[in-house]
């Protein structure tokens, strides 16, 4: 295995991880911003008010995007195994 192939594999893996994390984190960040603006406007400082909506939005993102995320990760794993077979054989 050459260094170029190793760097290519690591780069692809990091891209997959960043994309999958982005799909889960961004909705929670947006909901956190909305709740923070609501809390600042009403001066309500309740901890559960900031935690529960972010949790629900993250769970909803997992439910809605879970099938796509699993398929994307499986496709990446298949492509890595195919490339490994080409390198070995």
Key descriptive features of the protein:
mainly alpha
Folded structure, characterized:
- By secondary structure, the chain is mostly helical.
- The chain has one domain.
- It is 92% helix and 0% strand.
- It has helices at residues 3-42, 47-88.
- The radius of gyration is 19 Å and the shape is elongated.
- The model has no long low-confidence stretch (mean pLDDT 91).
Q: What Rg, in angstroms, do the CA atoms define?
A: 19 Å
Residue share in helices? Answer: over 70%
Domain count: the total is 1
How many distinct beta strands? 0
- The residue-averaged pLDDT reads 91
Gap between N and C termini: 12 Å
Number of separate helices: 2
Instruction: Report the principal-axis shape.
Output: elongated
Detail the poorly predicted runs.
Answer: none
Largest sheet: none
Structural class: mainly alpha
* Proportion of strand residues: under 5%
* Element order: H for helix, E for strand: HH
How would you classify the quaternary structure?
single chain
Transmembrane segments: 12-39, 51-69
Keywords: Bacterial flagellum, Cell membrane, Cell projection, Cilium, Flagellum, Membrane, Transmembrane, Transmembrane helix
Function: Role in flagellar biosynthesis.
Family: Belongs to the FliQ/MopD/SpaQ family.
